[in-house]
Design brief:
Blueprint: H1 3-26, H2 34-41, H3 46-69, H4 74-95, H5 104-128, H6 132-165
Helix pairs in contact: 1-4, 1-5, 3-5, 3-6, 5-6
Length: about 170
């Protein structure tokens, strides 16, 4: 197995461990009440779309930039995302498992974003060294996918939630 392919597995291993840590940490924290989650679902609007898109785009750009200097620093972003997902899933199981439907509509598209991030972390500057236009194209595609995920999270998820729970 090549060293780069092994590094792909390291990204996923680190993410998986962080997810497990998030689950454990969630038992040490108080889970938000269901009405808190219900209120978030009702906030489908442009401001939420903008905020989610800008936050996720910032993380993607940060991964791209940091990976040029050091391929290990972006692992902290992967660890953070894994912990957050672990805490979220655990809280959902503790409160109301049907709320898992809040993650699924946009989560299906977030996985490719995470895969793309892992690819960028592993390849880093080697990927773009001979062809700087390649980074602009890759970043543009990545940000477009992040926008699609934000659209689904803000507008589709509430529809799915309302169809199932109302």
């Amino acid at each position: 197995m090549s060293k780069e392919r092994l590094k792909h597995y390291h990204v996923w291993l680190v993410y998986g461990i962080a997810l497990c840590v998030g689950v454990v940490v969630s038992f040490l924290m108080e889970a938000p009440q269901n009405n808190y989650v219900d209120n978030l679902i009702l906030l489908a609007n442009f401001k939420n779309l903008r905020d989610i898109f800008l936050q996720n785009s910032f993380v993607i750009v940060l991964i791209y930039v940091i990976s040029f200097f050091n391929s290990y620093l972006p692992f902290f972003i992967i660890i953070q995302n894994g912990c957050i997902l672990g805490v979220t899933i655990s809280w959902i199981f503790q409160n109301n498992i049907s709320l898992l439907l809040l993650i699924l509509p946009h989560g299906v598209f977030e996985i490719p974003c995470l895969l793309a991030s892992a690819f960028i972390i592993v390849k880093g500057k080697k990927l773009f060294k001979n062809n700087p236009q390649r980074i602009v194209k890759a970043l543009g595609q990545h940000v477009a996918l992040v926008f699609l995920v934000a659209l689904i999270e803000v507008y589709v998820t509430p529809i799915v939630y309302n169809l199932i729970f109302n």
